[in-house]
Specification:
By secondary structure, the chain is an alpha+beta fold. The protein is built from 7 helices and 23 strands. The protein is globular, with a radius of gyration of 21 Å.
């Protein structure tokens, strides 16, 4: 078994008080990249000194999931049915409480919740905001403050999203090229990476796209954008890796199959293991938008299990839909065979330049990856259980990217039900 250790995020957290406000601080890249041996994923034996971290991680996941579930439950039917606006895990701008400014996982794997300064004008409003969010999460949360609300951040993401949807990215008047844009909960901003951050380029962006004060510009001239599309011998499937078992309902039948990356297979392509045809890529496929995924129904005589390749352990038929920035994840693909990192952004968007395909609301992490890993499973592990976080897509601008499992199953109308509950 090949074990990989977590890169625990080190950042100073101060509890909010009106007399001495504390702000989210940017952790150094050196500390972000350090390995910490106190927590090992995907093993049945847990080091004794990691038990507290494991408990914290479990509580953090439950609290963050409860927060987003409470936010989503408050949406109107109209807000839930909008297809042309930017959403974070299905929630558009305006769908978050005004007091909520984001959340992330600190070095002790506790959940830190940011409160918007604009919503805090008295001790009473502070207490009310904390009570509301603590009640939603049903957990003890650590609080700090930040300038902008999450609605502000998602609104800025939507401005850029609309710029892409309307085809304005080809505007000859633009003096800039957008490499990617992503929510950064740590720093309470939207990071926009341009190929040129001169004053004229930034001014052009503000004129044509958005002049929101939440945007922080960075320069990115990297060209390390790949889709991990090499054929590798000895892997799970010929053109990539298997993600997880899932079903498609057709009438009263439930068709078993698995997910992998859509850029590996077109509709109708045959999927091989060695020289054996095991599945076929279906029309339940989406390349672009909020996913890179295709459902592959298996052929007669084959099945998809839940035992995780290379690293061992069993994958649960359950999705971890709400991963906070800083949450540990493990990607398992045929080439790297199990790599661990942490979530760097819960909502990352960019255009894949080789074919000009626009992707949005992907997960971004810092795990290692290589050609052949495309379509592999991204796992969130807590208390010894392996949950499904997403499907590995590839690399872009120094990040490892994955399609969120919740976006895939919802968008392609897939289910974990094998028909026994029908």
């Amino acid at each position: 078994m090949k074990n990989r250790f977590l890169s625990l995020l080190i950042t100073l957290i101060m509890v909010f008080s009106l007399s001495s406000p504390a702000f989210a601080q940017e952790p150094s890249q050196e500390l972000l990249n350090r390995n910490d041996t106190r927590l090992v994923l995907n093993t049945s034996s847990v080091p004794e000194d990691s038990l507290t971290l494991q408990r914290n991680l479990e509580n953090t996941e439950q609290a963050f999931s409860s927060l987003f579930q409470s936010f989503y439950s408050e949406l109107s039917d109209t807000d839930r049915s909008t297809d042309d606006v930017y959403t974070v895990s299905g929630i558009p701008a305006g769908g978050f409480p005004d007091s909520y400014a984001g959340a992330y996982v600190n070095q002790d794997l506790n959940l830190v919740v940011l409160l918007s300064e604009n919503s805090i004008n008295s001790q009473n409003s502070l207490v009310e905001s904390q009570r509301a969010l603590s009640s939603a999460a049903d957990s003890s949360l650590i609080y700090t403050t930040a300038k902008f609300s999450y609605n502000d951040l998602v609104s800025a993401m939507n401005d850029i999203h609309q710029y892409h949807l309307t085809g304005n990215v080809t505007d000859s008047n633009a003096l800039f090229s957008i490499k990617y844009f992503a929510i950064d909960d740590y720093n309470n901003c939207v990071t926009v990476a341009l190929d040129d951050t001169s004053a004229s380029s930034i001014e052009s962006f503000k004129d044509l796209v958005s002049d929101s004060p939440v945007i922080r510009f960075i320069c990115d001239t990297s060209t390390d954008t790949t889709e991990d599309l090499s054929l590798r011998p000895g892997g799970a499937i010929d053109m990539g890796s298997v993600a997880f078992r899932i079903y498609k309902q057709q009438g009263t039948n439930f068709i078993q199959g698995f997910l992998t990356a859509a850029h590996c297979y077109d509709v109708g392509d045959t999927v091989y293991v060695g020289s054996t045809a095991v599945a076929d890529a279906s029309s339940s496929r989406q390349y672009g938008g909020n996913m890179d995924a295709v459902f592959c129904p298996i052929r007669s005589g084959h099945s998809v299990g839940t035992s995780i390749a290379y690293i061992g352990g069993t994958l649960r038929n359950a999705i971890d839909a709400n991963l906070a920035q800083g949450h540990p994840v493990t990607m398992v693909g045929q080439t790297t065979q199990g790599e661990t990192g942490t979530v760097q952004s819960i909502s990352y968007s960019y255009t894949y330049s080789p074919n000009n395909t626009y992707f949005y609301d992907l997960g971004a992490a810092n795990y290692s990856r290589d050609s052949g890993d495309s379509g592999g499973i991204v796992i969130s592990t807590r208390t010894g259980s392996n949950y499904i976080a997403g499907v590995h897509r590839g690399a872009a601008n120094s990040y490892s990217l994955f399609s969120k499992a919740i976006n895939i199953t919802t968008g392609l109308n897939l289910t974990f039900n094998d028909g026994s509950d029908y």
